[in-house]
Queue: 2 jobs
Job 1
Amino acid sequence: ESYKRIEEVEGKVEAFLHLNEEAARKAAREMDDHLVSKGVDGALFGLPAGLKDNIVTKGLRTTCASKLLDNFIPVHDATVVQKLHAAGAVTIGKLNMDEFAMGSSNENSGYKLTRNPWNTERVPGGSSGGSAASVAAGEVLFSLGSDTGGSIREPAAFCGVVGMKPTYGRVSRFGLVAFASSLDQIGPLTRTVEDNAYVLNAISGYDKLDSTSANVEVPDYTAGLTGDIKGLKIAVPKEYLGEGVNAEVRVHIEQALTTLEGLGATWEEVSLPHSKYAVAAYYILASSEASANLARFDGIRYGVRVEEDNLIDTYKKSRSQGFGDEVKRRIMLGTFALSSGYYDAYYKKAQQVRTLIKQDFDDVLAQYDVIIGPTAPTTAFQIGEQVNDPLTMYANDILTIPVNLAGVPAISVPAGFAYGLPIGLQIIGKHFAESMVYRVAHAFE
Ligand code: GLN
């Protein structure tokens, strides 16, 4: 069914980089006998899944949408892939993204342009744009994305699907090609909150192969989906409905708060005073980490090699031809911020700001059950509109980045339409309180 739907709509959406049809059909055929005979009760039995192309898949090309990794075929599966397969899901294919997950519109892919299924003149968001578009277009039942500064939630908002960034450490990053290791998290994109909770059940948990994975018990995320949110306390940061947030978006978020009030929750305005520094701090920290993580792509160990007479020129040519403009911009920025003489003024300062931002969240979440606001300041923008203006592009993540810096979980759920395009409501919770986030999201949905 998935492949039939892909054949119908993929020409318009272009969400996939590579399909896995033969292996998927084989897996689906074998799964029945195999799981049933072993008595395995796979919660995701036979469900078609799409994976962002920065999640490694054994024997299936994994490019991170970069020309540099054009020929890379991993020899193992990421932990999340093993877990999905153990739960019975079938990998349909690998999804388009911004190169190495750097971007907010999918326009930084080294291969193709993915389009928003609601309006093909618009971007799907990024960097997990293929992950959001494929679910919105009905090509797969669910997908996995990765979120470093908003890359699950912003495309989920733009494409009208549900996208969850779990608590940092909740889901193993083993086999996720690292962009900014202290911020990256894998999470599910689905049509409904309940589906999302099922997928997170399957992929969560401690993994000794990821030193930052948390040894914290995984509850059943579907257990709290009762629709009951009576007495819950919601915080609404004034910074999240202020200047820069589109008026239509604001109206929809206010309506959402009225809906939640009708369900018995209460809300109050609060402040996250350091949020205004989040984007600046993020681009220093994320770029610094990226410049170190991407050092391994030298044309020797992985990917496409441009052979020269000596090693240094081989490195230089392979990297300058393999990486796209945005990736180069981040590597230069990060290398600069980490260089001696500038380290204290930039990297160290940004780390200090990060601590203040985290404290803001801890203070508010000590008094409230969840924080609510929009996911993105606008609806999906036109293809080409921001691509030559990196600073405007970076501002799309102004409401999602603080959450990654704080390490807390957050979901984007559809909250109506403006200009014929979906709007996302963001619900942010305490560390490891995904159940509470799902509970509120489900009641609102
Ligand atoms: N848009 C942000 C960036 O370009 C976030 C990306 C992400 O979350 N992977 O860095």
Job 2
Amino acid sequence: MIKVNHLKKSFGKNEVLKDINEEFSQGEVVVVIGPSGSGKSTFLRCLNLLEEPSDGEIVFEGTTLTGLNEKDLNQLRQKMGMVFQQFNLFPHKTAKQNLTIAPVKSKGVDKHQADQTAVKLLRQVGLGDKEDAYPASLSGGQQQRVAIARALAMDPDVMLFDEPTSALDPEMVGEVLKVMKDLAQSGMTMVVVTHEMGFAREVADRVLFMDDGYIVESGTPDMIFSNPQNERTQDFLSKVL
Ligand code: ADP
Ligand code: MG
């Protein structure tokens, strides 16, 4: 579904991604772990060209994204949902309106149909009773579930998550991870940057360990957590587990 060839990204003289080669298959759930500053967010943002790679290519569903014109790129981006640490909901729109704006405006979905989909998705994330609530009246966990539902409202083929639970109070982490786990079990292709090692162990098909701009190690959760081969992976895990 996504192929990454010799991806490099620098900010000025700071070479943040050094030579990334990776593939994500349809239906695969991949968790990306690694120390702060290792390039995880930059990698994720390069997948949908929120960051423009300095070199290399991203191929999504057979189309090379790097070098595409803005119009074609935006079309393909709609197939890649993204959820951030900060939920970034539209504050003056209700939960339901947050889900219908983009499908109606940028995909031309019929308003009535967008409403129906929104209600269905809010139920799916356990917020069927919050259609008309404004973000400020929702807890952090609820807001993040609305943000996930909003990304799903565009009917994406892949969902990218960048530390979706890092800004949450601890008691709200579980409800968001539960929604993500259900999504994984429904067959969604997912790339998830997280420090939630329990989620990685339980839900990931594959875990990538990033350090200093490289994917240092990749394997099943069991391989990475129980028998890491690389010294840097071992060192990182000894600090977080
Ligand atoms: P991680 O998500 O693993 O913590 P990031 O991808 O956010 O790592 O950051 C990796 C490096 O890239 C850091 O040194 C960071 O300062 C730098 N960086 C990230 N985004 C930018 C940016 N927009 N401009 C300049 N430097 C950036
Ligand atoms: Mg990050």
